[in-house]
């Protein structure tokens, strides 16, 4: 008897020997009346499956090829059926819950547009018309249009992978550029105006102050900050360990993921003395209220992401400064480090948890532009020029060439002959 464990992909299993295999139902034999079932432990290349996802893609390709050869009516499925029965389940199995939740509205846009069209009947012209609509008449931002059209192309890529299509016709059209969007940030002055509106003796307002301070002074991502617990804070060594991300539906339904957005995001950063003092005082106040675990919390349950945005909006309006997105506090931190202290790119890259300084430069290179003027100012007058009193060269030629430096320096800059010993 073969013991097998299910995977998150329908029809894909792991055997008791640890090997991955798929088992697919292909209907009923019209002659014998028996079920047609196929089980495979190796890919078409004869190699053991490296992942459940790889086995699932081959399962779908085998199934669709079988249906096509036999002229099954449901092989000519609509785009809606393909999305609901194939692409979306596969996508959902491959990504984080939070990522899937953020893409659901995008998938709805795609199904609304192409839902009744047979998958195989989607033309290049329809793709181009959809692209033009997104850019011209949809009213969507450039960034959202990029996301929608990119998701559409990926869905057709998947249809090719699993055998529904022989080619992705949308690849014959141009992609939608992401576009450059300038994210508004708070300067040091604006941040000072915001926190000056917070009444610290009030417990909830004190919580708001600590939340804004932590994000502005550490540059951690929103989910990373919400996941911070006091066990991650070393006030004596002035260190902050960032190694988790909060995925929250509501205050009673959340996941503390034991990882960050990227592998390099798992980091320990140094925090300044002011931040240590603020956190120490906040910890003391929290404990009086029975709060012992989450740093950014007033009731020892995680704070909802939307609350962060609401707090920013409220105090921005009170201070008369621009409203910014929650993630812009991270950008504000970088701007503060560069404009106030001219911190180098490597230090900022490590502090933000980027995989390389190239990533940091991609998003923040423009913030270092002001330092170019500072370099020029420091260069001025830094070289002491004392020309020779006579030529040491033996040169015969044009007189104009003999004295190329003549007139380059004003007479006043040359040493006085009487001062020469």
Automatic annotation (TrEMBL):
For this entry, list what GO says about its biological process: DNA integration; DNA recombination
Domain named Tyr recombinase: residues: 181-380
- This protein's source sits in the domain of life called Bacteria
Coiled-coil-forming residues are none
Pfam families recorded for this chain?
Answer: Phage_int_SAM_3, Phage_integrase
Q: Which GO terms describe its molecular function?
A: DNA binding
Q: Which SUPFAM superfamilies match?
A: DNA breaking-rejoining enzymes
Q: What are the UniProt keywords, alphabetically?
A: DNA integration, DNA recombination, DNA-binding
Q: Which family does it belong to?
A: Belongs to the 'phage' integrase family.
Q: Which PANTHER family match?
A: PHAGE INTEGRASE-RELATED, PROPHAGE INTEGRASE INTD-RELATED
Name-wise, this protein is: Site-specific integrase
